[in-house]
Amino acid sequence: MRKVMASPLRHRTGVQQSFYVFLFISLACSYNIDLEHPLVFQGPSSSFFGYSVLEHFHDNTRWIIVGAPKANSSYSSSVRSPGAVYKCRVHSNPERRCTEMDLGRGNRPRESCGKTCQGDRDDEWMGVSLARQDRASGKILACAHRWKNVYYDSEHILPHGYCSIIPPTLQGRTIPLIPCYEDYKQKYGEEHGSCQAGIAGVFTE
What we know:
It is a single chain. The protein has one helix spanning about 1-30, and strands at about 50-60, 60-70, 85-90, 100, 110-115, 115-120, 125-130, 140-145, 150, 155-160, 160-165, 175. With about 200 residues, the protein is an alpha+beta fold. The strands form three sheets. The chain has a four-stranded antiparallel beta sheet, with no helix packed on it. The protein has a four-stranded antiparallel beta sheet with strand order 5-6-9-10, with no helix packed on it. A four-stranded antiparallel beta sheet has the order 7-8-11-12, with no helix packed on it. A hairpin with a 2-residue loop joins strand 5 and strand 6 (about 115-120).
């Protein structure tokens, strides 16, 4: 009787072991980071280069778009650490060079942005989040959640957050987006005075 009972138990244990081995192999094979042939891109030190990363494809060219929210910007040298967005070509780029993208915002620390809007760009964290439209010629959204409206001076500093919509070509005019700004809103609690929009972003279909 013992021999008859032992056989099914041994069979079940063997099946379980085979299942665990198969599961382990499946998990190992599904891990999709290529450790043997990585593409390594580097940016300025202390810039948080790589805080956000995005793949982009346009006109038969593949890019890696990288946010560096603590970077100094070569296009905005008068602004203190506004952050930057870089584009890194995947192919035909043997030196793995990345170049900063010109978001067309000029070199002024303060910028007029509405009837009661004066933007402060110091430490705005541009590139904290990146998003892309899921289509062939998709636009890119790059945001700075620490951008502030200081129109009312020190009494009311409103960290609304700011985003730029970048064309698929990665050059040319960008479109500003300040979803939480409304004319004549001047205090925290007036609907969304301190919303820090852009800490995350996504395009809907």
